[in-house]
Amino acid sequence: MSAAPALIAAYTVLAGAFGLVIGSFLNVVAYRVPAGIPLTRDSRCPACDGPVRAWQNVPIASWLALRGRCAGCRAPISARYPLVELVTALAFAAIAAASLASSALPVGATLIELVAYLYFAAVSVVLTLIDQDTRRLPNTIVLPSYLVALVLFAAAVSAGADPAALVRAVVAGLLLYLFYLVLRLARPDGMGGGDVKLAGVVGIYLGWLGWGAVAVGAFAAFVLGGVFGLALMTLRRAGRRTAIPFGPWMLAGAWIGIFAGEALARGYTGLLSI
């Protein structure tokens, strides 16, 4: 699919607006899932339990209008809420722009692929929040991601995408899962079970794009996590045995692989051939 610049711009704006709404929902998921609170419950202030009205739930705008405080009890509302909404909106817009501008797939396959990566972006945001807060990657979010990814990529194949990409995605997911499982068995205190399960999902999304994306995405996770750990140790905010959530770095590495993995891999192999 080779879309006109005006069409790409329109879809990018729409994706960004959709990301604002999804970001607001992800804030709810990140708070309620670890606490066991149903997602269907009406929004309430955690300080006074007062109801949050519809106009108070408008992404970013409501937080600014309320000056970061509850309309009822005036308790402070964390700036994390609008920040998550903004980050999700920017991520959705960037993914839409990159996908529509670079995809060589038929229109239907391109749009299905876009939906798959927007879903993965939403999962990435909410798992990063939950892992930072609780040191957990809930099965209720990770495990369904396997099914969603495989169904969407299979649909993309039926719409004209290369079947080999789906096979590669499945193989990459299995290989990355097994790699993390070995690390988990070798050092149970250094790798969580949630990381192992997430690795398979990451592998599927990287594998769909190519082996270069898999290699770069997997490697980047350990580089980013290692640099972060060393920074904490240097600042004396962590020791050698301090547990650091690795899920966020797995996901950050995955997105490096998604956006730049194939190009970086080609550049590296080009240097080796000189």
Description:
It is a multi-pass membrane protein. Residues 119-230 form the Prepilin type IV endopeptidase peptidase domain. With 274 residues, this protein is mostly helical. The chain contains nine helices and no strands. The protein has helices spanning 5-35, 61-65, 80-102, 107-134, 139-158, 163-186, 193-209, 211-234, 247-272.
Q: Key terms for this structure?
A:
72% helix, 274 residues, transmembrane helix, cell membrane, mainly alpha, EC 3.4.23.43
Output the radius of gyration: 20 Å
Query: Which shape, going by the Cα principal axes?
Result: globular
Give the biggest beta sheet.
Answer: none
What order do the SSEs take from the amino end to the carboxyl end, as H and E?
Answer: HHHHHHHHH
Strand content: under 5%
Quaternary organization: single chain
Mean pLDDT: 92
Q: Give the N-to-C terminal Cα separation.
A: 34 Å
Q: How many β-strands, per DSSP?
A: 0
Helix content: over 70%
Q: Any low-confidence stretches, pLDDT <50, length ≥5?
A: none
What is the overall number of helices? 9
EC number: 2.1.1.-, 3.4.23.43
Pfam family, one: A24_N_bact
Keywords: Cell inner membrane, Cell membrane, Hydrolase, Membrane, Methyltransferase, Multifunctional enzyme, Protease, Transferase, Transmembrane, Transmembrane helix
Protein name: Prepilin leader peptidase/N-methyltransferase
Summarize the structure.
The chain is mostly helical. The protein is built from nine helices and no strands. Keywords: Cell inner membrane, Cell membrane, Hydrolase, Membrane, Methyltransferase, Multifunctional enzyme, Protease, Transferase, Transmembrane, Transmembrane helix.
